[in-house]
Each structure stands twice: as structure tokens, then as C-alpha cells.
Design a protein that fits this description.
mainly alpha, 2 domains, DNA polymerase, domain 1, elongated, 3 strands, 14 helices, hpI Integrase, Chain A, 3-stranded antiparallel sheet
Length: 305
């Protein structure tokens, strides 16, 4: 398609300048739109954005769904859901900019996807995992501080590894976090996590830091900012040592943070704020705990349950 590549570039600039989206989100948009462009090159004679119809998009989504069913490609339900959302945003932009007259994606149905409930640790499992860390051996203090921080504040992995000393307010008990799209939020952090951060900062980190460390709190053995994979390995290591059989990954601690707050009676809007979710529907997945509890109560006490 002759003009699609240029239109994608215009759209990406719009996302960067007007929407202030994160690089990861923008890269996802670009990947999906390039996939759509490749499909058009291989499966149609369309030469212009103006020639794309609603049927073109329906055929494309059907193509993805067939690949999903045949497992020829790694297209999940969530990926297809995202693709439709991207197409809607893209063609809406083209209409606003008068590049096309009609929006072929306007009436596309965004399917409801099955949302898998996140794996969540019990309080006992969290304690076992934390206790599995030997803080007397390097890098035990660092690892304990990371796990404590993730559970105490529900941070994303990217937020943990980017945490800087000047954004930790020890006396007031909160963190200043820059999340997706560089959105700033204030997140409380407990005394236990702060205690281990302080111990690590004043001992192990002093021995590791160098000119590459900057202000990042958590450092690898070379004194540099940690990677996502290194945090993933830490979580895997100590969940295994704790004898936890569930499928555990770094995001599990974020899920656990939210679920335990909800179980304790916290308002879901407050949890949404702490997690940095722009949409309450993203946070509402954690209400499954309350629903399961209500169902159990009903089964136990209702005479006709």
C-alpha cells in the first residue's frame, strides 16, 4: 500500500506528541499496524487507505482468528482484542486529519475476551518467600528489599528497576513512581520494605555502586541498573526455595498486593490509584476474591443453595 507507511508515521507522531504514550505502547501500535499492512500486501489489491472498507477489516480479523485456531501464529484472544482497538484508533485519527472521509473501523465489534484470573499468593506464601532469602549472603539484602517493595507497593517490574533514591520518602512512608506514559503517582510503602531498602542502601549497594549506578536503588553485580529478567529470576528463585508450586512471575506480587488490600476492605478506587490503572475495569479483575467469598457464604448459609 503506497500511503499506509506514511500514514503510520503520522499516527505514531500523533501518539507521541498528543497522547504521551509510553514507548512500549507505541511499539505495540506500530507492530499491529505493520502486520495489517503486510496482510493487505499479501491478500488484497488495495493501494490506498481510502480503499479500505469495513469488510477489509472484518476479513483481516477473521484471518487472525483462523491463525489463532490453527495455532499457526501466536495470536492470543488478547492480541486480537488489542488489534481491533488499534485499528479503531488509527482510522479515527485518519478521519480527524481528513486523510479519509469515512471510518471503516467505526462499527467493528470489540469482542469480550475471557480474562484469566491472576495467580495470587496467600499471606503465608508471601512470608515463606520472603523468609527464603538469606540476607547474610550477598545479594540477599538487595533481593529481600526488591521482594518487600514489590509486595508492599504493587509496583510493575519496570517501576522497580527504575526506582531512584530521591523518589523514596523514608520519613513520610511513600514512593514517587513514574509509570506507563511517564504518569506520576504517589504510592505508600510499609516500614518493613523501607527498613530493608535502607539496610541494602547502606551496605551492599555501597560496595557495588560505581559511575554507572546513577541514582538507581537496585543494582546488579556490575553496579548498573537491573533488568526485567534479573527481577524475574529473583522471583523464580525464592518462590522455588519457598516450595511454592504455583506459576509465579514478578506480576504475581502486584496481583497479590491488590488482592490482599481488597480482602482487607480497601476501596477499589484507592487500589486503582495505587496501581496506576487509568481505567477502573482493569482493577476490577481483583473483585473475583469478593465474589468467590460471597458465593461460599451463600452456599454455606442459604437453605436452598
Amino acid at each position: 500500500m503506497s500511503d499506509l507507511e506514511n500514514n503510520i508515521k503520522l499516527f505514531v507522531n500523533y501518539l507521541k506528541l498528543e497522547k504521551s504514550l509510553s514507548d512500549n505502547t507505541i511499539n505495540s501500535y506500530v507492530f499491529d499496524l505493520k502486520l495489517f499492512s503486510l496482510y493487505l500486501d499479501e491478500n488484497s489489491k488495495i493501494n490506498s487507505s481510502k480503499e479500505i472498507s469495513e469488510k477489509t477489516l472484518i476479513d483481516f480479523i477473521s484471518y487472525l482468528e483462523n491463525h489463532l485456531n490453527k495455532r499457526e501464529k501466536n495470536y492470543s484472544e488478547k492480541s486480537i482484542y488489542r488489534m481491533i482497538s488499534v485499528l479503531k484508533s488509527y482510522f479515527k485519527y485518519l478521519v480527524i486529519e481528513d486523510i479519509i472521509a469515512d471510518n471503516p473501523a467505526e462499527n467493528l465489534d470489540t469482542p469480550k475476551i475471557s480474562r484469566l484470573l491472576p495467580s495470587v499468593l496467600t499471606i503465608d506464601e508471601v512470608n515463606k518467600m520472603l523468609d527464603a532469602v538469606d540476607i547474610n549472603k550477598k545479594p540477599g539484602l538487595r533481593d529481600r528489599a526488591i521482594l518487600e517493595t514489590m509486595y508492599a507497593s504493587g509496583l510493575r517490574v519496570s517501576e522497580v528497576i527504575s526506582l531512584e533514591i530521591n523518589n523514596i520518602f523514608f520519613d513520610d512512608g511513600f514512593l514517587r513512581i513514574f509509570g506507563k506514559g511517564s504518569k506520576e503517582r504517589i504510592v505508600p510503602i510499609g516500614k518493613s520494605a523501607l527498613n530493608f531498602i535502607e539496610k541494602y542502601y547502606n551496605s551492599e549497594r555501597l560496595l557495588t555502586k560505581n559511575k554507572y549506578s546513577l541514582n538507581f536503588i537496585f543494582l546488579n553485580f556490575r553496579g548498573r541498573k537491573m533488568t526485567r529478567m534479573s527481577v524475574w529470576n529473583i522471583v523464580k528463585k525464592y518462590s522455588s526455595l519457598a516450595g511454592i508450586k504455583k506459576e509465579i512471575h514478578p506480576h504475581t506480587l502486584r496481583h497479590t498486593f491488590a488482592t490482599h488490600l481488597l480482602e482487607g476492605g480497601a476501596d477499589i478506587r484507592i487500589i486503582q490509584e495505587m496501581l496506576g490503572h487509568s481505567d477502573i475495569s482493569t482493577t476490577q479483575i481483583y473483585t473475583h476474591i469478593d465474589k468467590e467469598y460471597l458465593i461460599e457464604v451463600h452456599k454455606s448459609f442459604h437453605p436452598r443453595a
